Amino acid sequence: MTSENTRRRAWFASTVAGLALMAGAAVADEVTVFAAASMTNAMAEIEQRFEAATGHDLVVSLAGSSALARQIQQGAPADIFISANPGWMDALEKDGLIEEGQRYDLLNNSIVLIAHGEADPVEIGPGLDLVGLLGEGRLAMALVDAVPAGIYGKAALESLDLWDGVQTQVAQSDNVRAALALVATGEAPYGIVYATDAAAEDKVTVIGTFPADTHPPIVYPVADLANRDTPAEAEFLDYLRGPEAREAFERQGFVVVGQ
């Protein structure tokens, strides 16, 4: 009888443990986030902290906002999209690819002129001799008609009447981090990137910040995509508004909207 009771207790304990494991597996989920390449450093920190806090698996895909938006339009299985400008988010919303009421503005940024290595600051305005500064070199930028950082940069240069003089010397890259890399390696002596990108690379120097009134406001909206609806997605959107995410963003030089 004692042996039988022992077996029953062992069976009961193993069953309870198994159910607990199954319950834990049911609670944990995977959240796929498509985020602008300029968020690379911040998202690496947020990924680690969110997973530790919730047990969920955060899968982050980083690229130019235009490329990510087109992938979503073509059916890529993303759950959350963070764009580096409202335009691409607007396009997805128009296509019915965003959950209604599940979009908000998350971050602000600025664009800067950077140089390879050490360099003296310049005054960014209509009088800037950018052609003379470049000489025979190239100006690295993200795609000026598709990627937000490139769009903002071109708008700023046009506002200052500098675009026509330098457009033939612009070396365009698929995303802003690729443009940053061109300057960091010395392949291009100068470039236009986000302030947050420049802060992440010690091989470049910020030599000037473009005035905010020379380009549209740099806003990063975030949204839950309309392909599935899980508690984990809601948890991540809430986490982005919380203190740990705010600290991660501010460490990289972002301004958190509403803070």
What would you give as the CATH superfamily of the largest domain?
Periplasmic binding protein-like II
The span between the termini is 68 Å
Major β-sheet profile: 6 strands, mixed
Classify the fold: give the CATH topology of the largest domain: D-Maltodextrin-Binding Protein, domain 2
Spatial strand sequence of the major β-sheet: 2-1-3-10-4-11
* Secondary structure: helix percent: 40-55%
Describe the structure.
With 259 residues, the chain is of the alpha/beta class. The chain has two domains: 7-108 and 219-256, D-Maltodextrin-Binding Protein, domain 2, CATH 3.40.190; 111-214, D-Maltodextrin-Binding Protein, domain 2. The chain has eleven helices and eleven strands. The chain has helices at residues 2-27, 40-54, 65-73, 86-94, 130-134, 148-159, 163-166, 176-184, 195-199, 231-240, 243-251; strands at 30-36, 57-63, 80-82, 98-108, 111-116, 139-142, 170-173, 190-194, 204-209, 219-225, 255-256. Strand 1, helix 2 and strand 2 form a beta-alpha-beta unit. Helix 2 (40-54) runs antiparallel to helix 11 (243-251) and helix 3 runs parallel beside helix 4 (86-94). The termini are far apart. Residues 1-28 form the signal peptide. GO terms for molecular function: metal ion binding; molybdate ion binding.
Pick out its properties.
single chain, 259 residues, D-Maltodextrin-Binding Protein, domain 2, six-stranded mixed β-sheet, five-stranded mixed β-sheet, 11 helices
